[in-house]
Each structure stands twice: as C-alpha cells, then as structure tokens.
Amino acid sequence: MKSNALNFSGGPGALPEIVIEQTRNAIDALPETGISVLGMSHRSDWFYAVLAEAENNLRALLGIGQEYAVTFLQGGSSLQFAMIPMNFAAEDSSPPEYVTSGYWSARATAEAARVTSRTIAWDGKATGYRQLPELHELDIDPSAAYLHYVSNETVEGLQFAAWKSDAAVPLIADMSSDFLSGPIEADRFAMMYAHAQKNLGPAGVTVAIIRRDLLERIPDGLPAILDFRTHVAHGSNFNTPPVFAIYVLNLVSRWLRDSVGGLDAMQAINARKAQRLYNALDSMGDAVAIHAARPWRSQMNVAFTFGDARLDQAFVALAGEHGMVGLEGHRSIGGLRVSLYNAVTENAVDSLAELLLSFGKSRL
Ligand SMILES: *Cc1c(COP(=O)(O)O)cnc(C)c1O
To answer: Which ligand 1 atom lies nearest to the CA of residue 76?
Structure first.
C-alpha cells in the first residue's frame, strides 16, 4: 500500500517519495545483486561501493576534502554527546565549552558533564529557550578543548542563521535536524555530526565528519568502539554497520544531488516552505504563539501553540482527517510542531498552511 499521508513529524521524518519507492524495490531484490537489501553482507563489494558513494556524495554536497574523515556510526546523536568529550576533551586543554540553547543542547551539555568538567558558554534556559546567542560574541576560553553547539534546536524551533563562529577553538556542531538543508561553510567546523532520521534517512546511522587533525588529540585507552580512530581506520565497517540505513541514506544523497540539484537549490526550497508557513501563522495574529523569537525562527521545525491545549488537539485531529500527521509538539513543551525537513514538499506545506488558515477562521 502506498501512503498518501503528509508527514510533518519531528523525527523519524518524511523521506522523498522516490527514495521510498527505490527502497521498496530493494527490499524485494537489489537490481545489482538479486537479493534483498535486508540480507546483504556488510563485507560484500556491493556494500563497500555503497559506503564509498555515500561518502563521496556527502563530500561533494558539502564541499569538503580529504582533510576531513567521513564516518557512519551507530548510537544516534546521543552517543556522540558522550563520545565527543571522551575523545576530544584533552587533558592538556581547558574544559570544552557548551552552548545550552534548547532541549537537545541541554542533553549534550549534561552528558558531557558525566565525562569531563565543562564550561557552559551560554545558557538560554532562564529565558525559556526562545532565542540564541551570537556565537562570535561569546567569551570563549581560547584554550578550551572545543566549543559545542546545536545548529538547529529541533524541539523549540530555533536555528542559528550563520552556521559558524569565529572562535579560535575547534567548533563542533550537532546538525542532526538541519544537516544538508542548505549550504554551510563546512571548513569552519572541526566536527559536524547528524543522525539520519531527521533529514537523511531512517534511524540507525549517524554521520560524523571530523577534521583529521582532531583525531591526534584522542587519548589512548578508550574502548575501541568508542574511539573515532577505530571507525576512520575501518572505513565505518569495524563491526556490522546498519547496512539498510546507510543504503537509504545513500539514496537520499543521490536525490539531493540529482533531483534537487544540490544544497543551494535545497535551501531555496526550504526557505519558501518556511516562509509560507510562518506567513500563515503570522497572519493569525495573537491567536498563535510561535515559540521562537523572530530572529531565530527555524526553517526546519516550527513550534507554536493556539494557547489552549484543546485547540491544539482540535487542530491535530482536523489535520489527521486531512491526512496530515506528526504535528504534536515535543513532549517537553507540548503545543504543536511542524517539521519541514528536506523531503516535505512545497505542496504539502501549502496544504497545511491553508488548513491552518481555515481552522483560524472557523475556530478562533
Ligand atoms: C533528535 C535529535 C537528537 C537525538 O538523537 P538520537 O539519534 O535519538 O540520539 C540529538 N540532537 C538533535 C539536534 C536532535 O534533533
């Protein structure tokens, strides 16, 4: 059965229709091998080719060279919250600095504290995680091991406009929910990481792109599987990787390259989608409260409320009748959340914006 539902879920999120179709066929049998992708060996030539192509596609999309290692890992972004301080909070540098700007960066900050002492460079909790700092205005210890931040706060719907900072310390960003949504100045980062289930594919694989000089700081004695050097040395095939998730991620990277036409084109589409949704919400005036303060509104996740849980639920129910799903807000803040990941089409956003407007006229 083919789904006609429009998926606005915060994650796992929508995937391009063509990718779903290719995946459906690959579950029956891969054209190249004649057997199901679900039963393909991770030591097959076929899988080595998938790994190589996925890596090359990411390099081409982001414009990164061999000074970076591209790895495909497991454990989600949450494991990165632990691995990053284990690997990179070197003893001979000052504690790493963390920007705490929302639910996910707070999780990263808390996890780092289990591994190392760390400094909170900025904390948005007291103001309800509605705004972001200017990264270049933060007072960062120049000998800090690194500066960690989340480029897009998925729960609150906050996004850094310029995905960079001029801090002299290595910059590490969790890009889980806006990775490949538009071009970035990749060479400003010492490390970028993103799990697949928001913008890249199904859950189970996490992309970590690490500048190679950072690998030299890793202390000896870590468990092999938690040491980034292990995964670099084994080409992301140290133990059994999530073959299926990496296969689908590769299809998504092809789709971005061939159907969308790269990250500039993706960015233009995403900007139009976000504009349409925010215009609809803004036109409803005080009847709608958008969580993020205006300058930090995310193009990927839009968290808002009608100010009354019954109205929010009524809209979720109405949307469900129109085949629109995944609109409940994150359990930590409630309300509603629309996720506009790469695979959400402009038509889907138009339909949702229209429904919001008609709900506003009839119910508010
Ligand atoms: C969803 C999300 C996570 C959580 O990732 P898991 O893969 O579930 O561990 C971390 N960071 C951000 C920014 C997210 O959006």
So the answer is: 7
